[in-house]
Amino acid sequence: MSELLSGNEALARGLYEAGVTVAAGYPGTPSTEILEALSRYKDEVYCEWSPNEKVAFEVAAGAALAGARAACTMKHVGLNVAADPLMTLSYIGTRGGFVACVADDPGQHSSQNEQDTRHYARFAKIPVFEPADSGEAKELVALAFEVSERFETPVILRTTTRVSHSRGLVTRGERRTPPAVAFERDPPRYVPIPIWGRKMRVKVEERLGRLAEEASRSSANRLEWADRRLGIVAVGVAYGYVKEVFPEASVLKLSWCYPFPDALLQEFAAGVEQVLVVEELDDIVEEHVKALGVLCRGKDVVARIGELSAARLRETRARLEGRDPAAASVPLAPEAADLPGRPPVLCPGCPHRGVFHGLGKLDVVVTGDIGCYSLGVFPPLNRTDTILCMGAGVTMAHGMDRAGEPRKVVGIVGDSTFFHSGITGLLDIAYNRGGSTIIVVDNRTTAMTGHQDHPGTGRTLMGEPTGEVSIEALGRACGIRRVVTVDPYDLKATAAALKAEVEAPEPSLVVSRAPCPLHTRSRLGPPRRIDPEACVQCGSCVKLGCPAIESDAEAVRINELLCLGCGMCGQVCKLDAVRTEGEEGGHG
Ligand code: SF4
Ligand code: SF4
Fold it and tell me: Is the pLDDT of residue 587 over 50?
């Protein structure tokens, strides 16, 4: 049976059919839906959201050493977190199959950087597969496990945004569970202390040679001979764009790009007059083709930054043919070109707004983190000064404080991010006698990736109730003596608490707790409106940055369809101009 699935759903189906019994991950766009879709098979597959990607990787590695087929999922920056176990699992190798599904985000649609996961595969000396579409994504899972088990190696299955989120035809198959094997004690194989680790290092290199030969023979890579004047090496998702823009060219379709299939690359290069390498992001294959002594074009004519597309490849074609690439580009439809720029903003009724409002009253440096609250950097809130990576909102606050920053430093981190990698930073601050204030904006979910559970929500990915970790208790256990909890919708109390904690002569933890209204799907109160008679258009409520509050030269208004009734605008209006339906005056 065939069905239309996104690349992520196809990967989940592939993992299920491949007989995976343990899967772990941390949500991150564009990878999140893989594990969510896989958890629908929870009767046969154990799935978990781990606190971070390193944990997820290690859980899957443990399962694979015990003989199970295991997988972990993450986005590209998540693999940075899991890089430590990745490098050594390559040495130890696997027993059951191990596949890490890693989704890259060319174009940085929802990421702090644009990085190419294939570097990690080469760094760790393990295979990487790259599907061109949903159908191939599912098929490659089966091949990835077969290769993983046959060569006793972890494998990376890399997708990029377009494959992860676009839909394609996928043919369903049956689930096949490999025979169970138990862990067998064998320290020289599984314990990389130097005396054994050095032997493993040699085996890694030998394995790489055998894998390169296999990649040249693999059905994942395919020669399509046509006009021999131009031969295009099309890697992963680029294949579809190449077929559309260069329909006449010969193509070497690569879906298993590392270890490089040298024999196949050489055979292809020998059969065409000119070679062009088309790959998304970095010039990994191109660089290797050149190292083989093959003259080729690549990133000199193909975009290096951002997502590839057929439109961008038309510009490549123009460059190759000596035409003006600008003339080959497809102009935006007039209505799209005319759209005003819309900076991202916190949702109407978002509890984080109360914290940023309070921070706006203080002369402090704010080190931010990864999550919805990173939107506090934009006007009119303008209340985040740095963002680096998960957990760095906490640690960078301590670093600035220790560097002698004259203002007080406040670190801000979400609840899921706190569990991911904020706890160790807080421990560092307490242990090393820091002075910063850390705010955990706890909206009871992993909001930015689509409301996934985490150790603080009291529910697992399998839908089971579980212990609900207290952030306050964790803070105290780390050694923080000043721990306060605030209701961010109470602007006055929140601002007062922040002021007191920032001025305190010791580190403190503020937990701002209120659930994400998009997650609870409940109104916070009746919709507000602004009484035009009472309003003097001072703009104080506009500075909250609530998308429901609209203003122009004539008036300030509230869009009642957007308003969730949180009441914050009423609290900032000194003239009581914010009303609820039927109300004559008074606070919103
Ligand atoms: S804060 Fe009050 S007076 Fe000022 S613009 Fe808003 S509604 Fe009008
Ligand atoms: S009550 Fe005011 S701040 Fe809250 S959602 Fe409505 S308009 Fe926005």
Answer: no
Q: Quick count: other Cβ atoms within 10 Å of Cβ 293?
A: 8
Residue 527: cis peptide before it, omega within 30 degrees of 0: no
Band (pLDDT 50/70/90 cuts) for residue 581 is confident
To the nearest whole number, what is the mean pLDDT of the chain? 94
**CA geometry: angle at 497 spanning 492 and 502, to 5°?**
130
Q: What is the Cα–Cα distance from 59 to 74, expressed in whole angstroms?
A: 13
User: Is 555's C-beta closer than 6 angstroms to any atom of ligand 1?
Assistant: no
Query: Residue 143 and residue 156: Cα distance in Å, rounded?
Result: 12
Residue 159 bridge partners (DSSP): 103
- So what's the pLDDT on residue 343? 76
- Within 293-377, residue ranges assigned H as helices are 310-320, 325-328, 334-338, 352-359
pLDDT at 324: 87
> Is the beta carbon of 528 within 6 A of some atom in ligand 2?
yes
- As a whole number of angstroms, the distance between CA 147 and CA 584 comes to 72
Task: Return the pLDDT at 21.
Answer: 96
* Sign of the CA dihedral running 576, 577, 580, 582: positive
**Model pLDDT for residues 261-273, shown as the tens digit of each residue:** 999 999 999 999 9
Residue 64 identity (one-letter amino acid): A
Among 406, 374, 375, 372, smallest CA distance to 393 is for 374
Q: Hey, is 341 helix, strand or coil?
A: coil
Query: What value does the mean pLDDT take over residues 293-314?
Result: 95
pLDDT tens by residue, 383-442: 999 999 999 999 999 999 999 999 999 999 999 999 999 999 999 999 999 999 999 999
Buried b (16+ CB within 10 A) or exposed e, 26-59: bbbbbbbbbbbbbbebeeebbbbbbbbbbbbbbb
Whole-number Å distance, alpha carbon 215 to ligand 2 midpoint, is: 57
CA–centroid distance, residue 185 to ligand 1 (Å)? 71
435 burial via Cβ count (<10 Å: 0-12, 13-18, 19+): middle
Token pair of 573 as six digits: 């209006």
Distance 544 CA to ligand 2 centre (A): 9
451-476 pLDDT per residue, tens: 999 999 999 999 999 999 999 999 99
**Whether the CB of 448 sits within 6 Å of ligand 1:** no
Cα 80 from chain centroid?
A: 11
Q: What is the 3-state secondary structure (H, E, C) of 176-216?
A: CCCCCCCCCCCHHHHCCCHHHHHHHHHHHHHHHHHHHHHHH
The CA–CA distances, whole Å, from 27 to 333, 391, 436 equal: 34, 15, 29
The C-alpha R_g of the chain, in whole angstroms, comes to 27
Question: What distance in angstroms lies between residue 527's CA and the mean position of ligand 2's atoms?
Answer: 7
